[in-house]
């Protein structure tokens, strides 16, 4: 018996038979979603982005751009807004295949990198997500520690050991929600989004009489007086694009549940740019207000709230931060590596095992910080500096993959995929697609040269843009050449 792809209106659904059930590249969790499972409306998609965007790292972005990239507060907020508008292009385009065919990110990558070759970009994306999972879990664990400390002096006396215990409590909450499946994530995001927006508006109103927003926006740039504006601005813009460069790749993991292309497009437009801009602006205002509130500048909302002398409000605020961090972490940092790990060996790694692998890798990547909090090692490296330094670095790796995916689906495959072949070894899609690896490796090689020899430094400084554009262009020409050669070989064989 053989499996087949069936078109239902604008969607495709896979009818699985014994050939795919026995394939090494198929399991039920990576299989395309059924039509009846595609239930996410534009409201659910928008709520997904609200839930992911409202988190501690977003709160600190304004500070990152002013401190590390030499921008003024106004320039920093403009860079954040523009970056997230730019991101809508790869986000909505790379979501198309997920919505039409119901396939997750790793399976879509099989088209451009090969059935087996897809594991390399998958693991690059997955390991970054595991790192962010660990960082966000650290923030969530701190919030749990402060929440319990507001009720119990004995718990407060645990100090950093209590933070470590909080880490593992928060870790378990994340793992439980994702193991329960996509519907649990959908409802978590949908229920938490309006609550988080109301809280954000309330905090902005609360801080408005404690600091002059006009004066905050007028804070000058932290760069040499004779330095040009555009170089600093585009470096900051690239870093902000890098913040969600990960999701611009694995957005099919969520768009595969969308009701329609219109729902995924409108939902993303509504949910992402405004939320990111608003919450980053809130972080700038509250950081400025922290001097009046607690007598010192505090850029971390958890630490700031923990200094407020009111156990009741600390407890309420920590519950909300836990919800915010949970909604971000489960969707942004657990779903992708879970699917990516499954792609390595679908017959041996199912959804539950993929989630647990993500959790274990997240713990290992945060091991140094956990041991530091336990007093077992001494280190000056902070979580904040760790994720700040990632923004440019990993965007340089992920940019080419985004460009390759868009060109492959829209220009090379012309939005037509063979669902059955994506899960089997029938030569429709090669095990390794050389075009994908050439288009990925060349921009990465130029980035390495740029860093190693301090030449064409703009290529690294604007890493996501240079990587995405060069990867897309190289892939188009190499893949077109491959197709021409295949047609030529076929004609020769026929003769």
Question: What distinguishing features does this structure have?
Answer:
495 residues; mainly alpha; Hydantoin permease; two-stranded antiparallel ribbon; 25 helices; 2 strands; globular
Can you tell me about this structure?
It is a single chain. The protein is mostly helical and 495 residues long. It contains 25 helices and two strands. Strands 1-2 form a two-stranded antiparallel ribbon. The longest helix is centred in the middle third of the chain and has 34 residues, at 311-344.
Structural topology:
Elements: E1 4-8, E2 11-15, H1 18-21, H2 42-53, H3 56-59, H4 61-68, H5 73-101, H6 105-113, H7 119-151, H8 153-156, H9 160-180, H10 182-207, H11 213-217, H12 229-243, H13 245-250, H14 252-255, H15 261-271, H16 273-294, H17 301-306, H18 311-344, H19 351-365, H20 367-373, H21 383-412, H22 419-422, H23 434-453, H24 457-461, H25 463-494
Quickly name the level 1 CATH class: Mainly Alpha
Number of helical segments with 4 or more residues: 25
Order of helices and strands: EEHHHHHHHHHHHHHHHHHHHHHHHHH
The CATH homologous superfamily corresponds to Hydantoin permease
Mean pLDDT: 89
CATH topology: Hydantoin permease
């Amino acid at each position: 018996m053989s499996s087949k792809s069936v078109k239902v209106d604008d969607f495709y659904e896979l009818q699985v038979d014994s050939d795919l059930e026995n394939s090494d590249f198929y399991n039920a969790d990576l299989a395309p979603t059924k039509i009846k499972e595609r239930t996410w409306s534009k409201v659910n998609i928008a709520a997904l982005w609200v839930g992911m965007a409202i988190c501690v790292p977003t709160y600190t972005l304004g500070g990152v751009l002013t401190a590390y990239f030499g921008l003024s507060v106004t320039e920093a907020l403009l860079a954040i807004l523009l970056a997230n508008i730019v991101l809508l292009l790869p986000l909505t385009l790379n979501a198309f295949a997920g919505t039409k065919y119901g396939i997750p990110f790793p399976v879509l990558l099989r088209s451009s990198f090969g059935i087996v070759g897809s594991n390399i970009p998958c693991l690059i994306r997955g390991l970054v997500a595991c790192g962010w999972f660990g960082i966000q879990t650290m923030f969530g664990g701190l919030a749990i520690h402060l929440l319990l400390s507001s009720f119990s002096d004995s718990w407060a006396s645990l100090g950093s050991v209590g933070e470590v215990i909080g880490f593992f409590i928060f870790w378990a909450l994340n793992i439980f929600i994702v193991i329960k499946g996509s519907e649990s994530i959908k409802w978590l995001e949908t229920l938490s989004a309006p609550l988080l927006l109301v809280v954000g508006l309330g905090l902005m109103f609360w801080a408005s009489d404690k600091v002059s927003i006009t004066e905050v926006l007028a804070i000058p740039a932290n760069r040499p007086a004779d330095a040009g504006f555009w170089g600093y601005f585009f470096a900051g813009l690239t870093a902000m694009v890098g913040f969600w460069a990960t999701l611009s790749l694995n957005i099919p993991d969520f768009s595969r549940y969308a009701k329609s292309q219109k729902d995924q497009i409108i939902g993303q437009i509504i949910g992402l740019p405004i939320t990111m801009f608003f919450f980053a602006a809130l972080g700038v205002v509250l950081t400025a207000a922290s001097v009046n509130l607690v007598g010192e500048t505090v850029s971390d909302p958890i630490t700031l709230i923990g200094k407020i002398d009111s156990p009741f409000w600390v407890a309420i605020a920590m519950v909300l931060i836990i919800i915010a961090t949970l909604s971000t972490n489960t969707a942004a940092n657990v779903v992708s590596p879970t699917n990516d790990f499954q792609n390595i060996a679908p017959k041996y790694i199912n959804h539950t095992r993929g989630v647990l692998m993500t959790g274990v890798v997240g713990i290992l990547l945060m091991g140094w910080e956990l041991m530091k909090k336990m007093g077992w090692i001494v280190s000056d490296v902070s979580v904040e500096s760790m994720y700040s330094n990632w923004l440019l670095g990993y965007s340089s790796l992920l940019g080419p993959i985004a460009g390759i995916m868009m060109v492959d689906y829209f220009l090379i495959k012309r939005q037509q995929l063979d669902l059955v072949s994506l899960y089997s070894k029938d030569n429709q899609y090669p095990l390794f697609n050389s075009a994908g690896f050439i288009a990925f490796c060349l921009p990465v090689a130029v980035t390495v040269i740029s860093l190693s020899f301090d030449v064409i430094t703009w290529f690294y400084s604007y890493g996501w843009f240079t990587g995405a554009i060069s990867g897309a262009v190289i892939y188009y020409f190499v893949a077109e050449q491959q197709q021409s050669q295949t047609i030529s070989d076929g004609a020769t064989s026929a003769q």
